[in-house]
Amino acid sequence: MLVTGRLTVIGIGPGPEAWVTPAVASVVTDAAELFGYGPYLDRLPGRPGQVRHATDNREELSRAEAALAAAASGARVAVVSGGDPGVFAMASAVCEAVGKGPAAWRALDIGFEPGVTAMLAAAARVGAPLGSDFAVISLSDNLKPWALIERRLRLMSEADMALALYNPASRARGAGAKQAFAVLKDCRSADTPVVMATAVGRSQERIVIQPLADCDGSGIDMRTLILVGSSATRLIDRPGRTPLVYTERFARMPR
Amino acid sequence: MLVTGRLTVIGIGPGPEAWVTPAVASVVTDAAELFGYGPYLDRLPGRPGQVRHATDNREELSRAEAALAAAASGARVAVVSGGDPGVFAMASAVCEAVGKGPAAWRALDIGFEPGVTAMLAAAARVGAPLGSDFAVISLSDNLKPWALIERRLRLMSEADMALALYNPASRARGAGAKQAFAVLKDCRSADTPVVMATAVGRSQERIVIQPLADCDGSGIDMRTLILVGSSATRLIDRPGRTPLVYTERFARMPR
User: Fold this and answer.
1) What is the ipTM of this complex?
2) Could you say which DSSP state residue B95 is in?
């Protein structure tokens, strides 16, 4: 059998069409079948004859398998992620499915199209909180033990690096962010600037800047991205405007 | 004096126009004055009457100050970064200049437009090497002591996190990447997958995938982005295609 299908994993950014790259827009236009979380698919312009497979957010692996099967049968397939497909999104699930799947899937034409990931959109709302070395951690313990998350938060603090925290509300009752803040208060200065960016780029956008000491996990939901500063993160107050938050480009050895 | 100027720091992505967001393209079109590293400005379409200030890559702070002065005098100004403006780029320098500059600069309308950063474009070329928690470190010791870079590389390895390494060739004679690999060999498995992506998205693009044991810093230049796997990073060989490299979404406590 000649395989003519193609599968592209795309990132449509955090919200507005103005953050969708032309490369991604063109994959969307060309695709015969789109697979993704319903609310992401709803953001994309449709065209007649295009088939959309909307699935729940927790079914990454089975969604990836269904998309690969469609591509293997000859379809031009797009797998849709919010943000960037490689950051806590569908690219890893598609690779995993290829590894576990039939040998024919390894012969498929598979591509990945990068996008604007949520942490960079959130950072851009306030300045440059990720302007020096930083770490990116998911607070979801669906895929790893909470003890590992805590260990990583402590090591990143020992390294004095800024943090971007994804999935702060995926633990039961939003306990993830609350517990993460408790750990961080134990190993970072109380006045460390924290940015909580909810629904960035959408009409419900809400940006909160406050010192770590005041962070208790309230006001956080599944659309929130948390940025935590290092010892080199500064706040610049501005009359009538939100403060700028940035991490200095220069860094010293912590004492 | 009524201040009518505006300054926007934009990220034009790693190379091709298809990775420039519509939001960034529109800032470029609207700007009366563009400030940036010459090769980045050269990538942008021009329009009559638009003034371009091309500067050397090492003059971030003075470039930021010149751009702020132009905005303060009423111009619509764009400060141009490659990739994303908030990742080892101009956003932090602009904030620093505001903090150090005249009080009037704090009243300016200043914005930031995110872009596709090099690590996400590099990751997309091979699959999802940054598909779980990861850290982002610049190997340049222009702005921080090498001892701090080494310390961070060791702590990130203790946390068993994948790495994106920027600026691997900014140390004299490319010693940065060579020294970084020496440190990483000391604390990660010899078969850890490493991706070296040079000039991603441009005609000279070169992607090399090899085990950490074989990495000695050769073949790396200032256009190279290095991705280093964790213990959960896998390689999937494919007939007639480059292997897929991805980090598993699931993670365990390291022993």
Assistant:
1) 0.96
2) H
